[in-house]
């Protein structure tokens, strides 16, 4: 597993359910960030040359390598558009959220 | 001390993510720094984050966005907590690990400078990263010791009487180097490979290392969401920031631009500098040239 997975948060019902100290499991994710987005990046794989520059520049780490190209974890992408702007081949375009109904 | 490895780059850097699902503003420069530092150092890294953006966005209970061992320190105590962790890890006989602190500009140059100075003095084996977004962003964009001349913040508003911040940016890199530290460097997220190389170098130093990395904050600077990387590149190209290293008591300049790009163009892209007049910009250019004359005459280029 390369990225922490989303898990369900069991709401504490009793005082015993709370952790004893102010510590918690590392990489414990219970909410997504997808709803922050107004635009979403789309990778055009025919233009992508697999330089992985977008992968390094992504503040969220949602871009990952897949078959020598890149793919995006939309659950945590905030749609900042850095990937589209830095791509040397302009292989990533930003579209308005909801415009890709055919998918 | 881990074994000396080959250069880390986009192709061979670990696929694992150690800073994921955080709540930083979209396009945050600081979170690029945290993510890359942890990816280069790897899983066996103890991370200390003081009060500031990265602790506010990384530890939102019960969402824990650090996938390695991470802890929040007091604002002033990043470096002293690093010293404590380093001593503890040594006492436990741990092998092959890193101790890294990632603090903002306020937590480094103002509030945490005393603890940092002490840690460098002791020569503890720690890595200290300062991500410089030139103001206290987490609390609402107040001026810090690293806010440059002319920048508008909520505590230094620009108006008829003053052009925003009146003071100069503290020279944190040389303050740290003046301690005779084992390794210090400046970097920028606009030159990512250079930054990665420096993190790697810092991880192999047997002593204290410090990296000062320029990390734009689109929210606080009034710049588009997607501009962090471009601004961080432009600031180096126009000469208002430099890429340098200090080791073995010597300064080395890593990038010596033959010709600077326009300072005005760099400034006018950010609304915190929108109000600056021609005279203010000339003043900034004069102080830049003075700095570069000094760098070029004294440092090895």
Automatic annotation (TrEMBL), chain A:
Renumbered to this chain, the signal peptide range is none
Cofactors named for this entry: [4Fe-4S] cluster
Instruction: Alphabetically list the UniProt keywords.
Output: 4Fe-4S, Iron, Iron-sulfur, Metal-binding, Pyruvate, Repeat
Output the Gene Ontology terms for molecular function.
4 iron, 4 sulfur cluster binding; metal ion binding; oxidoreductase activity, acting on the aldehyde or oxo group of donors, iron-sulfur protein as acceptor
Domain of life, per UniProt, equals Bacteria
Q: Name all 4Fe-4S ferredoxin-type domain ranges.
A: 39-67, 68-97
SUPFAM superfamilies xrefs: 4Fe-4S ferredoxins
- Which Pfam family would be a valid example here? Fer4_21
Carries keyword RNA-binding?
A: no
Q: Would I find Zinc among this entry's keywords?
A: no
For this entry, the protein name equals: Pyruvate ferredoxin oxidoreductase
Q: Which organism is it from?
A: Acetivibrio mesophilus
Q: Which classification does the entry list for the species? A: Bacteria, Bacillati, Bacillota, Clostridia, Eubacteriales
UniProtKB/TrEMBL annotation, chain B:
Asked whether the keyword RNA-binding is assigned, the reply is no
Q: Keywords in UniProt for this one? A: Oxidoreductase, Pyruvate
Thiamine pyrophosphate enzyme TPP-binding domain location is 51-213
Is Oxidoreductase set as a keyword in this record? yes
GO terms of molecular function? oxidoreductase activity; thiamine pyrophosphate binding
Q: Which SUPFAM superfamilies match?
A: Thiamin diphosphate-binding fold (THDP-binding)
Under what name is this protein listed? Pyruvate synthase subunit beta
What taxonomic lineage is listed for the species of origin? Bacteria, Bacillati, Bacillota, Clostridia, Eubacteriales
């Amino acid at each position: 597993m390369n990225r922490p997975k989303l898990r369900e948060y069991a709401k504490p019902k009793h005082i015993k359910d709370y952790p004893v100290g102010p510590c918690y499991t590392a990489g414990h994710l219970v909410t997504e960030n997808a709803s922050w987005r107004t635009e979403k990046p789309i990778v055009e794989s025919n233009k992508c040359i697999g330089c992985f520059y977008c992968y390094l520049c992504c503040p969220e780490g949602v871009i990952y390598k897949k078959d020598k190209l890149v793919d995006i974890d939309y659950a945590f992408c905030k749609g900042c558009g850095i990937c589209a702007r830095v791509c040397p081949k302009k292989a990533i375009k930003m579209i308005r959220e909801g415009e890709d109904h055919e998918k | 001390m881990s074994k000396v490895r080959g250069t880390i780059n986009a192709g061979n850097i670990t696929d694992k993510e150690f800073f994921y699902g955080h709540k930083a503003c979209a396009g945050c420069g600081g979170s690029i720094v945290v993510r890359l530092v942890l990816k280069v150092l790897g899983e066996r890294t103890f991370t200390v984050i003081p009060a500031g953006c990265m602790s506010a966005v990384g530890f939102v209970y019960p969402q824990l966005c650090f996938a390695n061992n991470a802890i929040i320190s007091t604002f002033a105590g990043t470096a002293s907590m690093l010293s404590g962790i380093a001593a503890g890890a040594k006492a436990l006989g741990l092998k092959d690990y890193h101790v890294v602190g990632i603090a903002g500009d306020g937590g480094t140059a103002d509030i945490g400078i005393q603890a940092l100075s002490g840690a460098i003095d002791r020569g503890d084996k720690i890595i200290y990263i300062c991500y410089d977004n030139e103001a206290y962003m987490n609390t609402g964009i107040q001026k810090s010791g690293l806010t440059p001349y002319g920048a508008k913040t909520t505590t230094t508003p620009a108006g008829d009487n003053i052009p925003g911040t009146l003071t100069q940016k503290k020279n944190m890199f040389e303050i740290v180097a003046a301690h005779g530290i084992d390794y210090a460097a400046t970097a920028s997220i606009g030159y990512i490979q250079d930054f990665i190389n420096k993190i790697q170098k810092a991880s192999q130093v047997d002593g204290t290392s410090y990296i000062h990395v320029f990390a734009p904050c689109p929210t606080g600077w009034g710049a588009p969401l997607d501009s962090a990387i471009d601004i961080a590149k432009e600031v180096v190209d126009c000469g208002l920031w430099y890429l340098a290293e200090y080791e073995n008591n010597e300064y080395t300049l890593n990038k010596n631009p033959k010709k600077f790009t326009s300072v005005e163009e760099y400034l006018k892209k950010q609304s915190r500098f929108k109000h600056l007049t021609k005279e203010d910009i000339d003043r900034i250019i004069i102080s830049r040239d003075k700095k570069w004359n000094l760098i070029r005459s004294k440092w090895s280029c």
